[in-house]
Sequence to fold (413 residues):
Amino acid sequence: MALLFFATTINYLDRQVIGLLKDNLAKEFNWSERDYSWIVIAFASAYALGLLLFGRLIDKIGTRLGYTISIIIWSVAAMLHSIASSTLGFGIARTALGLGESGNFPAAIKSVAEWFPKKDRAFATGIFNSGTNIAAIAGPPLIAWIFISSGWKAAFVWTGSLGFIWLIFWLWFFQTPSKQKRLSVGERAYILSDPDELNAGEQPHPGWGQLFHYRQTWAFILGKFLTDPVWWFYLFWIPSYFNSTYHLNLTGSAKYVSTVYVVASFGSILGGYLSGWLIKKGLPVYKARKRSMLIFALCVIPIFFVRFTNTIWPAVWLISLAAAAHQAWSANIFTLASDIYPKNTLSSIVGIGGMAGSVGGILFPFLIGIILDHFKLTGLLGTGYNIIFGICAVAYLLAWIIMHLLSPRMENI
Fold:
């Protein structure tokens, strides 16, 4: 669990460097909002394709080797940002980064399914997924310090190098339960305590085409498509939103950005705990997941009222609540996949759903760039952000309704 947590932390730390340095890089390379959105889209496009490819690859070669390949690619790509000298150069580096980083969640979700029974998976997922928030907490002050002391190139080099340190521990410690010699008989029995684990070795390996025949697959796809882009908006635009709205700089906005993700980290862990607690209280697995997700969807709606705030802290708390709700939602939607699908196809389905989320992550930044550039020209940039926050407010409730209509009981495959 510690290895998955730190890998996810490094994954998001590498990913968010450009968002934190956006305003400084925009001045140096003369980026418009639309230029920046194209760089985000380059990352999202490669991430979408990579999720599909890595999901299938990890099901075939296993989590240990699949994670190793993923982190080598993304760490090298993160460091290559330091030699970019144009917008095109950043686009190429982001493409490589997106391809490599796409292996993180298919490998991590499959690892959780290998090591935990269903009643513990959402909590375990919430713990490692909180690494996304720890990266966003530590990232602003860390990147600001490196930028001030050594410049923007050093920020990419130092954060990219962390992946190679993690890789040493991964290859040293990690094995699947079937190959882990230090695992006791009692621990192995607990891991395999779900009834459907008894015949796990006899399960066939379905192809991609077969997965699309199930309504549960489409529920997962649309749930990710509608909600993942909102998190990308927080990651890539919230620092700039604070800077432009409240006239701050990188160091001035760091504490506000960090606050958002401190709160979000609690949401990730508590969100995973809630559905597990409901299962232990006797609620069927699918009801526990969906009831929890409905609560989290409703918790996002107050972000609509950011438009009515006049000072920064009320805006920070509203965005923090929405970010925490997203992380809680994310822990449960990932765990739904591990509840429904057999382990030998889990990375594939996580890759398919993740690709759908990334497609949304391509379309939404494109829309954001158009909206913000339009309102920036009219001197009403805040109005552009208000429109975007309104979209974020309803995305999760719409996703929950669609998922419920498509698969009310979320039957196992």
About this structure: The mean pLDDT is 83. The chain has 17 helices and no strands. The radius of gyration is 20 Å. Residues 191 and 197 are 9 Å apart (CA to CA).
